Amino acid sequence: MPSAADRREMILAAMAAAAKIAGRDPAGVQLIAVSKGRSAEEIEPLIAAGQRDFGESRVQEALDKWPPLVARHPDIRLHGIGRLQTNKAEDAVRLFSVIHAVDRTGLVDALVKAADKAGRTPAVYVQVNIGEEEQKGGCAIADAGDLLAKVRASPLPLAGLMAIPPAGVEPGPYFALLAKIARRHDVAGLSMGMSGDFRAAIMLGATAVRIGTALFE
Ligand SMILES: *Cc1c(COP(=O)(O)O)cnc(C)c1O
Q1: Of 166, 30, 183, 2, the residue nearest 100 (C-alpha)
Q2: Which residue blocks in 38-154 are alpha helix, DSSP H?
Q3: Disulfide-capable partner of 93 in 46, 84, 114, 211 (CB 3.0 to 4.6 Å)?
Q4: In the chain, which residues have pLDDT < 50?
Q5: SS3 190
């Protein structure tokens, strides 16, 4: 059975191979280990293997799990990748170095206020509801420009655009669409691609992939 560290090596190699096929520098793609639902015992071997970027979906779970790990490894960067309620903005700003699910102007306001209070300015990705799905997080494609302008006018550094394509369909066209929206608005970062589709995402321009299952199972 491959260890978590072995799986990480295999994923990094597959990421580099996809980047090379696309004529991209593999160093331009970041691996975010999605550790939601995983225990500290499962996470520690990845930290020991050198992994420093971790993604969590829920603020409360991250608060319960990460402070002791971060105290031992202060160079860890936590990424908030789940839908964020405005009333969790203060906790999110204290915990996360990067927030991937900023999808409405009211949330930007809450994060700016929380950042001011905490003296910390996490970078943010604007999440786009790329498949225009009812239930999904993310702003409408037509609203991405306004939301990007709002972030750019704020003290929060803009990390880029983030999206989760609809389940059960070929994700490539959605990745390509997100990349096109990014070009249109002169945005450099693209958080897209998960365990099942990170190669395609990298070939279409992902600069950060969020991988859970393939790392931990
Ligand atoms: C859970 C999750 C992931 C990781 O998905 P896997 O298929 O387990 O790699 C990536 N992004 C978001 C937003 C998630 O919630």
Answers
A1: 30
A2: 40-48, 59-72, 89-95, 105-118, 144-152
A3: 114
A4: none
A5: strand
CA of 21 from ligand 1 middle (Å) equals 24
SS3 state of residue 37: coil
User: Ligand 1 centre from 113 Cα, in Å?
Assistant: 28
Per-residue model confidence (pLDDT) at position 65 = 98
Structural domain for 156, as ranges: 4-216
How far, in Å, CA of 18 to CA of 122, rounded? 29
3-state secondary structure 131-185: CCCCCCCCECHHHHHHHHHHHHCCCCCEEEEECCCCCCCCCHHHHHHHHHHHHHC
Give the CATH number, domain containing residue 175: 3.20.20.10
**What pLDDT sits at residue 1?**
84
Best of 194, 199, 211, 217 to mutate for ligand 1, by most ligand atoms within 8 A of CB? 194
This model's pTM is above 0.90 = yes
Note the pLDDT of residue 114: 98
Strand duo 98-102 + 30-34: pairing: unpaired
